[in-house]
């Protein structure tokens, strides 16, 4: 069952989530966040893009030497990230409101890109991953951390059943990993299960162009 997620619906949802997002989603998603940023293998002076940076919960995990750009569709979520950058006094972070399906960056502008808990919250995950491939240099690392549709039949059916409700809340519960990667031409180097009940997958790819 495919249920469409609309851009306006996402903006409305995250406008509401922004004040309570950290309270709800900090601790529960923390192990996956640490693993995702570690797997970016950031070297000094690497330029990294975080897609759908939200309130910036990953910010403390980046090395100080990293040149980071974060984008998000929601001004309200980004306002929280701006506060966090100021609190952490991070010198080289740029934050922009931007639709990840049509990024305002040139080809091959970044060494690395990451999207944590974002790819099932965007209306068009294929377009977002294609954009990530376009703006990351050949050979650069792309890390995606997300819940994907379970490979277990019964769990997958339940995820299909609850999809209309989840879509109303702002995310897709039944996004399948392998068809998504195939469609954008990404071959994972690593797929690791993370977080509570191993319910989320960390996918690390090298951007072969
Ligand atoms: C579940 S939150 C994840 C936030 C953050 N990455 C984290 O790890 O906590 C999903 C984020 O994706 C953003 N988002 C959804 N669609 C987007 C799009 N097309 N372009 C940019 N950001 C988008 C939302 O505004 C929201 O902040």
Describe what you observe in this structure.
This protein has a single domain, classed as Vaccinia Virus protein VP39 (Rossmann fold), CATH 3.40.50.150. It is built from 6 helices and 7 strands. The chain has a 7-stranded mixed sheet with strand order 3-2-1-4-5-7-6. Helix 4 links the parallel strand 4 and strand 5. It is globular, with a radius of gyration of 16 Å. It starts with 6 loop residues before the first helix and ends with a strand. The mean pLDDT is about 95. The chain binds S-adenosylmethionine. S-adenosylmethionine binds next to helix 1 and strand 2.
Rg result: 16 Å
Enter the CATH topology name.
Rossmann fold
Envelope shape: globular
* Distance linking N and C termini: 32 Å
The level of helicity is 25-40%
Order of helices and strands: HHEEHEEHEHHEE
The count of strands amounts to: 7
pLDDT < 50 stretches: none
Question: What are the SSEs and their pairings?
Answer:
Layout: H1 7-17, H2 21-39, E1 47-51, E2 67-72, H3 75-88, E3 93-97, E4 110-116, H4 125-135, E5 136-146, H5 153-169, H6 177-184, E6 188-194, E7 200-206
Parallel strand pairs: 1-2, 1-4, 2-3, 4-5
Antiparallel strand pairs: 5-7, 6-7
Helix pairs in contact: 4-6
Residues 10, 14, 25, 52-54, 57-58, 71-74, 77, 99-101, 116-118, 121-122 line the site of S-adenosylmethionine (SAM).
